[in-house]
Amino acid sequence: MSYFGEHFWGEKNHGFEVLYHSVKQGPISTKELADFIRERATIEETYSKAMAKLSKLASNGTPMGTFAPLWEVFRVSSDKLALCHLELTRKLQDLIKDVLRYGEEQLKTHKKCKEEVVSTLDAVQVLSGVSQLLPKSRENYLNRCMDQERLRRES
After folding, report:
1. Given this model, what pLDDT does residue 1 score?
2. Which residues form the signal peptide (predicted)?
């Protein structure tokens, strides 16, 4: 048997259940990631608008005088920064679309996988049920053996 086959089932034979739970958790994780990216895009968009507003304020500065070159530097840098963050917002929105598409594909794959492994899932659940009953059955057997021994001594 391969290394994977020997170790997949894991401690107490919960490997399949861990894997199945991870697959079930996938859509929730994907949604959380999309929500996080969406929030980040909103923040970047807000920052871009604020920098554009600062750029406008800098362009209203006095074109003459000691600070004229400084106002131009502020305007240009604010403009560039606003554009950078706006571009980041667009890329994050594209990323959200990709993550949501991935989530849809993940759901389809999960449904297909669920249909294919339903027999394994049933077998694992039966095995788990038997594993839980085994210690109780063993205890009952040992108690009956002790009762039988006690009755043998009394007779």
Report:
1. 46
2. none
Count of beta carbons in the 10 Å neighbourhood of residue 44: 20
The answer to whether the predicted template modeling score (pTM) of the entire model surpasses 0.85 is: no
Other CB atoms within a 10 A radius of the CB of residue 52 amount to 17
Across 7-11, 34-38, 105-109, least confident range = 7-11
Q: Output the CA angle 94-97-99, nearest 5 degrees.
A: 110
Distance set, CA 32 to CA 16, 29, 81, 98 (Å): 24, 5, 28, 14
Q: E strand or H helix at 116, and its extent?
A: helix 68-116
Domain boundaries, the chain: 12-117
CA atoms within 13 A on the CB side of 87: 6
Mean of pLDDT values over 72-95: 95
12-117 topology per CATH: Substrate Binding Domain Of Dnak; Chain:A; Domain 2 (1.20.1270)
